[in-house]
Hints:
The structure holds two protein chains of two kinds. By secondary structure, chain A is an alpha+beta fold. Chain A is built from seven helices and 28 strands. Chain A folds into three domains: 4-56; 124-274, Sandwich (Jelly Rolls), CATH 2.60.120.1440; 306-539, Jelly Rolls. Chain A has helices at residues 4-17, 22-34, 36-60, 79-92, 94-104, 276-303, 529-539; strands at residues 124-133, 146-147, 150-154, 156-163, 168-181, 184-196, 204-207, 210-224, 227-240, 247-250, 254-258, 263-265, 307-311, 322-323, 336-339, 342-345, 352-356, 362-371, 374-382, 389-395, 403-408, 413-417, 437-438, 451-459, 464-469, 472-478, 488-495, 515-523. By secondary structure, chain B is mainly α. Chain B has two domains: 3-101, Orthogonal Bundle (Rna Polymerase Sigma Factor, Chain: A); 104-171, Winged helix-like DNA-binding domain superfamily/Winged helix DNA-binding domain (Arc Repressor Mutant, subunit A). The model of chain B has no long low-confidence stretch (mean pLDDT 86).
Amino acid sequence: MTSVREELASLLFDWEAGTLDDQGIERVRDLLRGDEDARAFFIQHQALSSALSLEADAKIAPPATEVPSKKSTSPTYGFGFWAAAATALLFCGLAGRLAYLEFSDSNTASVATSQQEVTSSGIALVTNLVDVEFDSQDDVLEIGEALSPGRLSIKSGFAQIEFFCGATLIVEGPAEIDLKSSSLARVASGRLRAQVPPAARGFSIEVDDMKVVDLGTEFGLSVSSDGADIQVFDGEVEVHSPEKDKRLLTAGQAVTRNSAGEFSSGEVTPDRFLDIASMESRSIGQRAARYESWKNFSDSLRRDPRSIAYYSFDEQGGWERKLQSSITPDNNELDGAIVGARRVQGRWPSKSGLEFKRPGDRVRVQIPGEFASLTFACWVKIDSLDRWYNSLFLTDSYNQGEPHWQILDTGQLFFSVRHKPDDIGGKPMKGPTHREVLSPPFWHPSMSGRWLHLATTYDADAGKTTHYLNGDILHEETIAKDLLVKTTRIGAASIGNWSIPIKPDAEYAVRNLNGSIDEFMIMSSALGADEIKEIFENGKP
Amino acid sequence: MDSSKNSEQFVRQLTEHQNRIYGYVYSLLGDHSRTSDVVQEINLTLWRKIDEYQADRPFLPWAFAFARFQVLAHLRDHKRDRLLLDAELAEKLSGEIEQGSSQVDSIRVALRACLQELTPANRKLIEHRYFNSMSVADIAEASDRTSGAIKVAMLRIREKLADCVQKRIALENV
Lengths: 541, 174
């Protein structure tokens, strides 16, 4: 005898295949009208079909080869983006949905069966910044950032840019430069020093209608509204301009071209152009100063009564297999046990971090107490997102009131607090057991190796969860009342991995982070956007 | 809240919940092309109602109310077409389906893992049918089996997937 479920499954299979006749449709309806079990089965069946269909769309979505350009790496999406998304949703229907799926999935080539090679476009890297200031938020550069063709503007200070062809520019603000390709830049204003090793010969800079072609050398260029000043410190360069045939400048020579296009010879003053060695020594000084200023700020976090757990990763001395709690007054009950993870350099050369690499790597902690609102924040350097779930902080198992903070392989930040009572080992719960809050994808392989500040606040009164990346809001969501958890607790937990006390499916439990962590804090309150910003500003490397 | 901020928040929410709305409509209609049309109408309706949208209230229940209305309207307007459910049944199931659809993302996550647990041959079948939209007859021909045999095999795989997904979600491996 076939059960109701089997019969319905067979009918729905035919329906999906397009072969169910009228009689069959009537039978489906009869079953659904009369049988509660049939209805439950139907709901589950249709949910699985929807999920399969959504997965299918995700797989046929075109590969995303576009890489965040310099301007679009900004984690907050402007209204323009959302307006465009709205248009897509409204006028393209399915295509709009595909666009979203593409946006959420294929950027990290996560689709297991049809992996695309990850691509990263860019023509240059920002390798150093000293005392640098920018006119607007859109201009902000970060060390390690890959630059795509486009405008680069600094208000003051120095930026070291390494072009993929091998040429290095040290740009002094105020400067306005248009990056054209991996071997060409156009300078509107500013002072810069170019170091072009033989491999990068042919690197060119355009100023107005003049072009300076480097033949393997070191030269300085200063551009203002009065004209351009070219000085060769080493090797030789070719200068092409409409007025004159190309002219060759060799070491020790300098020319000035005024706004009327007239050339005159000038003096060589290498001291006016900062070189790479001085840039490096200035940046060491600046890093040391930043480290000191972070330490001062960190002191205030240690004493903050809202700190539930705080690991600065900066405790001196024998913390070999122990991650010392940094909370004042000392409480060594909060010390974490380092399992596997290796001590590595943190955000600054003189500061440590922990690297999580192997599937077993983790820091075990035990955090007693009951709380309401929570804030999680850490500095993390992600090497890659290898797992479905890449752990930042997970409580053992997942019981009522326990938070889970992790990153999905799609690059989305994930936070949830379990709402339903414990059921591991017991009867499975019906219905949702938590409300997960997912940010839009924030991570792309081009960010690998950069220190990022991640934070998530959970406001148990307002029911609001907010995700932050580098001090800016990434996503905010209000949780429905019926899934809101008022009392949170942590207990035994792991940083950088998941530990489940009972054995199930060990294969699936691999959630180790592939990357490093430097500084980790949990606070018993949902910090405001300004406080998160402050933590970021005071902690950035 | 100024209006551009509100629209931004609105579009954010709409984008965020697209899959759930899709899941809801598909569950009731059981047909992909109809579902796409109706989701489209729902998006338009929501967009027109943006003035009524309040950023501090949960988006999904609000959106589902319109989605329900659009699905029922579609079922009534297309009464003569071949439809799986009638309006009356859809209305009856709507509440529980809302619940199910809000889980669609967890189901997808579980599903991906469950697909990996299938034997390669079984996974191939699912891929042919659902990802490459091959008809049962074509799959049968390609694999030199009868349509009946393919159906039996697919039903068994779906049952396995459903069990696996349910188990993973119940275990709350999240």
